[in-house]
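Tokens for chain A. Residues wanted.
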């Protein structure tokens, strides 16, 4: 098959060069966006009188049959075509004759592919956002069911202060909420239409760029035709958002892996999301969490790859930009799989509340509250800190918790301790008296959960 650009050339392209140059093996997934953009362009050409209304209708009808046949599997992608644009145009000409050759009037593959990618990313933002929304609903359900599930909070991977599982999961709710907000703001920022930019300098035809922008759901045409065809900032920002989201998934995975270990035993992962060992029959491995954690490098790599590709490209379009697609497509596929599987794993996970509570009690997570108890009774904080530090050392030597000490033992370190010390350092008290906004106390958490419910009920820009 002759290439769409073959008139200038007198020799066939070398077979290796053709294979190196062709993008259809991966850009075929843009077929819906390519056809949608071509329909809008044809409608505009007819509206402007650049082609007749009859020709525009014939082109639009022909594009519709191509879309239907691709969707049904009747029309398959074959390697004689260079890219998705030549595939669609060649089949259009085969079906409607010379009228199909008029579709490309006033258009370049440069603004065509820029449009296709923007339409595609806009669609993928919506899909990724919906996956994150469902994931947040799962996280919220865990929060609602575990307001009174006490566990240790950690700093430096050491037990610090008691919290609840609801509060711990609430931290991840905020992370993934921010990821949705980044997607939503990107959807607004990138919503300009490059169609009509031509190769780089617009066109002499009287195109109505506002019409095509509106037809395709954009806010406005791009303001500069050179930028219109060479802008990939939105892809870099999209990959940056995916990389941040993947980082959050990786952090969450790390905790699930730790909590699933024999040393923690905080969770029991459902059999459907675990695997065994080929040699050790006792093993139940958290492979999904480990794979999600491991795939972080792929998404980070996609971001680094595209930024490196773009760093040395002069205006306007250059073939280097073809390298944007495979890394973006892979990152999208990866993040969507990761969110979906992690969501399902968390949704079926069993939490061992008794083990969590025992871990909080036996890790001196109430030591700060014991110090605060003394401060309320007039002991300077620095002195209280030292008293409780010596008490903790005493407990370590006796292999017991603060709660296990007798009142006489407490009073060996300070005569300010009274019978009420036991209530003051209970897990329930330690958590419930923390009522500041964002803290793990029940009242604060009930308020946070209600606000989270309301947030999920509202539509984001990415959903619209």
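Reply:
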């Amino acid at each position: 098959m002759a290439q769409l650009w073959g008139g200038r050339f007198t020799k066939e392209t070398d077979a290796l060069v053709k294979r190196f140059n062709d993008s259809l093996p991966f850009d075929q997934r843009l077929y819906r966006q390519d056809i949608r953009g071509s329909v809008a362009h044809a409608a505009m050409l007819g509206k402007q009188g650049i082609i007749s209304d009859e020709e525009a209708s014939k082109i639009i009808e022909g594009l519709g049959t191509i879309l239907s046949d691709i969707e049904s599997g009747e029309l398959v992608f074959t390697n004689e075509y260079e890219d998705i644009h030549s595939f669609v145009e060649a089949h259009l000409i085969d079906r409607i004759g010379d009228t199909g050759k008029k579709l490309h009037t006033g258009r370049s593959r440069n603004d065509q592919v820029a449009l296709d990618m923007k339409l595609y990313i806009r669609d993928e933002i919506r899909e990724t956002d919906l996956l994150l929304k469902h994931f947040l609903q799962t996280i919220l359900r865990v929060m609602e069911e575990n307001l009174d599930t006490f566990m240790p909070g950690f700093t430096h991977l050491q037990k610090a202060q008691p919290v609840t599982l609801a509060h711990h999961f609430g931290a991840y709710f905020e992370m993934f909420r921010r990821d949705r907000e980044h997607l939503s703001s990107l959807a607004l920022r990138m919503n300009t239409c490059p169609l009509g930019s031509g190769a780089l300098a617009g066109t002499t035809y009287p195109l109505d760029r506002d019409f095509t922008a509106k037809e395709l759901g954009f806010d406005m045409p791009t303001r500069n035709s050179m930028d219109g065809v060479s802008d990939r900032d939105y892809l870099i920002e999209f990959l940056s958002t995916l990389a941040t989201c993947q980082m959050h998934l990786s952090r969450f995975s790390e905790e699930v892996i730790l909590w699933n270990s024999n040393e923690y035993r905080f969770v029991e992962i459902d059999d459907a999301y675990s695997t065994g060992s080929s040699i050790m029959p006792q093993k139940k491995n958290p492979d999904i969490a480990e794979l999600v954690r491991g795939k972080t490098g792929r998404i980070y790599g996609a971001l680094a790859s595209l930024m490196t590709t773009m760093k040395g490209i002069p205006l306007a379009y250059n073939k280097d930009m073809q390298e944007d697609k495979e890394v973006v497509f892979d990152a999208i596929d990866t993040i969507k799989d990761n969110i979906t599987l992690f969501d399902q794993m968390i949704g079926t996970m069993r939490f061992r509340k008794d083990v969590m509570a025992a871990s909080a009690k036996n890790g001196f997570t109430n030591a700060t509250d014991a110090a605060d108890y003394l401060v309320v009774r007039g002991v300077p904080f620095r002195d209280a800190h030292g008293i409780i530090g010596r008490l903790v050392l005493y407990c370590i030597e006796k292999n017991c918790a603060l709660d296990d000490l007798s009142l006489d033992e407490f009073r060996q370190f300070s005569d300010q301790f009274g019978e009420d010390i036991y209530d003051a350092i209970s897990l329930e008290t330690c958590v419930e008296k923390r009522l500041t906004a964002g803290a793990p106390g029940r009242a604060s958490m009930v308020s946070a959960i209600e606000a989270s419910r309301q947030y999920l009920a509202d539509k984001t820009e990415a959903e619209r």
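The radius of gyration is 30 Å. The chain has 20 helices and six strands.
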